[in-house]
């Protein structure tokens, strides 16, 4: 839904919009929790909720919601080829909540967009009721809300989306008005990718990584090459010695186990100090270095001379970086690198799907 926020704020200037979000899934599902689609009164559809199998039904539901103002929940299960009913061909189940939003939501959406923009953890709690209530929950928020404050904060702090509370059909002895069934839509700060080097491979990596949600920093000590104009898709372009920069970032707490460091300069006086710093710390996650087999062998030898234990190198360093896709151009290399980042983050194998058993859509660890 991050990408929909500026669009929603823009379309709300013309009138109410129907917002549909995935609030629950079971089994293999085409989209993750929080995936969103908006439908305007003029019939414009922005975003999607599936591979197309349920979107048309949601557009019809959204039209009704715009007319009545009453929110609805829609559930879809596995598709039956002998049944005319709409279903999911992937075999999973999905619950979608559709509500009408108008000018009364502009302030909350603007606040949400601002929080996402500065990387502040925030959760949007929405009661799954006919007339939904909203609450934006930031770290340090005060005041009680529907008896769900701790539940919302726990999901927000874990960076997870989910449903909290109860409804009358599931827990008839608990008053749903006190703890209504509520979707907690969490917007965690984007994962960081620190790309070392100011070259065309890093430029391509910025574009691909940005498109899958990374906050990308380019760092290189050469000011003539390290400029925002050369890296328009980077969030930050820093002129500094990468090893020192990385140590400062780690010491200040601006990196964590979700941070990826990709060293792509092919210059030992830059590569080696950066990798020594990264490998010595647990405050970064994936550590990779681009290069040929010969470059890799030379790099390992230099790291060993610098005092990095060989088992630490073998356990932590992805070198040569990237999956074996057979590509050569900067864009192809960037895709192979980001594919490896995605695979390792989600516990994937990197193999062709036809050669892998089990569900295609795995649950992300911690979700």
Automatic annotation (TrEMBL):
Organismal lineage: Bacteria, Bacillati, Actinomycetota, Actinomycetes, Mycobacteriales
Protein name as catalogued: Putative xanthine dehydrogenase subunit A
MF (Gene Ontology): xanthine dehydrogenase activity
Keyword Oxidoreductase: yes
Ranges of residues in domain XdhC Rossmann: 193-341
EC number(s) given by UniProt: 1.17.1.4
Oxidoreductase keyword on record: yes
Keywords, alphabetical: Oxidoreductase
Organism domain of life: Bacteria
Region annotated Disordered, chain positions: 346-367
Pfam families membership: XdhC_C, XdhC_CoxI
Domain XdhC- CoxI: 15-71
